[in-house]
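Listing S7. Sequence submitted for prediction.
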Amino acid sequence: MGALDGRVAIITGAGRGVGREHALLFASEGAKVVVNDLGGEIGGGGSDLTPAQEVVEEIKAGGGEAVVNGDDVSDWEGAQRLVNQAVEIFGGLDILVNNAGILRDKMLVNMTDAEWDAVIKVHLRGHFCPTRHAAAYWRAETKAGRPRKGSVIHTASESGLFGNPGQTNYAAAKSGIATFSIVCSKELERYGVRSNAIAPRARTRLTLQTPGIGDLLKQEVPEDKFDEWSAANIAPWVAYLATEECPLNGGVWMVFADTVQRVKPWELDSAGKIDNGKDYWTLDAIAKAAEKFVE
């Protein structure tokens, strides 16, 4: 018996990297998997279904069930087809893993609106569209008396949680995804559906291009050593979040190597507060009080 026996999963961006590892592990644990991947370049251009097809063939060779989907997850109709495919072929939908993404890194003063729009579209809209259609399906199932213990896992990033120079577009999208997930957890709970977000740290096509870390990731790891940057380290936590009985909802989780750490959402800093003694502020009063914020 696998931990995901009988559950139907959609995994976006599953042709390579972290998404590929998700798909392989989910299938090995008994899930029926829709392997979505447009097969584009790192910057989002082009398309090639070969990576997704290879993952499907690997799953089938291991005795699992999987199908290819090449729809653009940021396209409204494409995302609907993606959800419909899972329901029509496998009889339902229990899990949605939003993982697809691209990079178009550039310092803010050099970034074009096209570079901004492309990244926001694939990441943020690419999370919204599939989730929106999946949520409509789960709501309809609940109203029909067939509730499913659904789970959505979104892919945020440390860049979005803590900021990273050269990635205003990517970081803004990933920060939005983390908050999107938290809101989803509150809205979808009534339908028996949980929502969590992860911030994975792993060796992928995208991180290999990231300034300051790409060179580190290119170093070979001896076979007898634990590879802390392996993309395979991320999948077990995501699979756990996808299990039917997992109690976790509304969390944002940083996943790296052999560690998982919960990330607190925006919260007020009780020590970082100033007030004016129930009187109207003046600029002079603010300037004096705000000195406590200067480190």
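Caption to Listing S7: primary sequence and predicted structure tokens for the chain studied. The longest helix spans residues 113-143. The domain at 8-268 is CATH 3.40.50.720 (Rossmann fold).
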